[in-house]
Amino acid sequence: MAAYTVHSTAIVDDGAQIGADTRVWHWVHICSQARIGARCSFGQNVFVGNDVIIGDNVKVQNNVSIYDAVTLEDDVFCGPSMVFTNVNNPRSHVSRKNEYRRTVVKRGATIGANATVVCGHTVGEYAFIGAGAVVTRDVLPYALMVGTPAKRIGWMCQCGERLADSIGEHDCDACGQRYDIGGNHCTPL
């Protein structure tokens, strides 16, 4: 198992846990209590806070800040300049560190470029948040979410292709995975 790689401009504070084969690129800062899995990639100008847990094979593109109280499970993709928050009503002159709300992004989810995930919500497994969307509530597994505030407009396959929107059993045109699709669920069969 190979060690992780850190670019010379990056800062990894003592105590940070980083898994094998993870790549930390230009001007990244990883805080001392962060826990990061194997085979992850952190693009230029990424920040990872202390109370952050990141699974294996997570891709974080340029200019993303992962603040305290965020958990990213395995295989999550964070697009360029997407945003996590951790306080609902921030004020510069009022300390609210004891009010952080936990955000969880479940396995395989994708968050598009410039999207925002407001704190205190869960993004379900393999959900797909479109570029520029603003997530203000929990997201169902496999949901395709777009807009401000984000609304579900369909379902996505684990392979990243859009599925049929009608209720019933459907195969993914790209990979053949079969799903049971209902009004408020999409379940692999």
Description:
Keywords: Acyltransferase, Transferase. InterPro entries: Hexapep (IPR001451), Trans_hexapeptide_repeat (IPR050179), Trimer_LpxA-like_sf (IPR011004). By secondary structure, the protein is mainly β. The chain has strands at residues 5-6, 11-12, 17-18, 23-24, 29-30, 35-36, 41-42, 47-48, 52-54, 59-60, 65-66, 70-72, 77-78, 83-84, 103-105, 110-111, 116-117, 122-123, 128-129, 134-135, 143-146, 151-155, 168-171, 178-182, 185-188. The chain has a 9-stranded mixed beta sheet with strand order 1-4-7-10-13-16-19-21-22, with no helix packed on it. A 6-stranded parallel beta sheet has the order 3-6-9-12-15-18, with no helix packed on it. A 4-stranded parallel beta sheet has the order 2-5-8-11, with no helix packed on it. The protein is globular, with a radius of gyration of 17 Å. The termini are far apart. The model has no long low-confidence stretch (mean pLDDT 95).
What topology emerges from the helices and strands here?
Blueprint lengths: L4 E2 L4 E2 L4 E2 L4 E2 L4 E2 L4 E2 L4 E2 L4 E2 L3 E3 L4 E2 L4 E2 L3 E3 L4 E2 L4 E2 L18 E3 L4 E2 L4 E2 L4 E2 L4 E2 L4 E2 L7 E4 L4 E5 L12 E4 L6 E5 L2 E4 L1
Parallel strand pairs: 1-4, 2-5, 3-6, 4-7, 5-8, 6-9, 7-10, 8-11, 9-12, 10-13, 12-15, 13-16, 14-17, 15-18, 16-19, 17-20, 19-21
Antiparallel strand pairs: 21-22, 23-24, 24-25
Protein name: Acyltransferase
Organism: Vogesella margarita
Family: Belongs to the transferase hexapeptide repeat family.
